From TrEMBL:
Coiled coil: 10-37
Top enzyme class: transferase
EC number per UniProt: 2.7.6.5
Family per similarity comment: Belongs to the RelA/SpoT family.
Name by which UniProt lists this protein: GTP diphosphokinase
Domain RelA/SpoT: 45-166
Quaternary data: Homotetramer.
InterPro entries in the record: GTP_Pyrophosphokinase (IPR052366), NT_sf (IPR043519), RelA_SpoT (IPR007685)
Pfam families reported for this sequence: RelA_SpoT (PF04607)
BP-aspect Gene Ontology terms: guanosine tetraphosphate biosynthetic process
Amino acid sequence: MDGRDWGLFLQPYEQAVEELKVKLKTLRTELKNREAYSPMEFVTGRVKRISSILEKAKRLSVPMEKIDTGIEDIAGIRIMCQFVDDIHRVAGFIRMRKDLKLVYEKDYITNFKESGYRSYHMIVEYPVQTAIGQKHVLAEIQIRTLAMNFWATIEHSLNYKYKESLPDVVRARLKKAAEAASVLDAEMSSIRNEILDAQRDFEEKSNMFSSVLSDIQELYFFHRVREAVQFQLRFNELWEQEDTFGIRMLSDEIRSSLYRAKKGGTT
């Protein structure tokens, strides 16, 4: 190991990961607000451990003075999607961004690895503002489904245990598991519309329930205690009966009462 200050070396990568996470989570929120659905389920990130950097540099014969360009995934971002089609859509959003530069892409979904590994990788160059000026760092963005990620996490753990030399029987079973995960993704894609409709319905109900309870609490603020208690009891009854239509009607009634309370009127 050279005598570099690893904390100082990794700081721009840590900053890049944090900034990219914030920006991609913001994109997720915007898409959800615009379309009531986001192709991004969630976003995570990490900076590679020093030991992993050194091991990879040795494996790839990367000189220590060139690890910042020879190892492209020191900064890593992972985006999870529900459906395979979402992966390509997310990749399209990343290609359009002006705050990073796309270096190249690796499609391990169309051309999956012999092991069964499936994922979509994008190597990007991201500018970080440091105390001594701007520094461009490489980062790897992995986009995959939840099923792909589950398989890849297991494979990574097994490779760590067996030092990249998996027994043939384990390798064969992993490959079968990868095929099963691919079949699962295909099945989920085939009922995509039904899944999204159910999720939208659930979210709409959840938002409506939260809004009703918030409005009831606001009535207490305006000292409409009797009304608030009555509305709460009616909401509880309708909720027990799973009467969504009734709760929607109750919501309108509460809104009218709250409007009068704000105007200083009487019931």
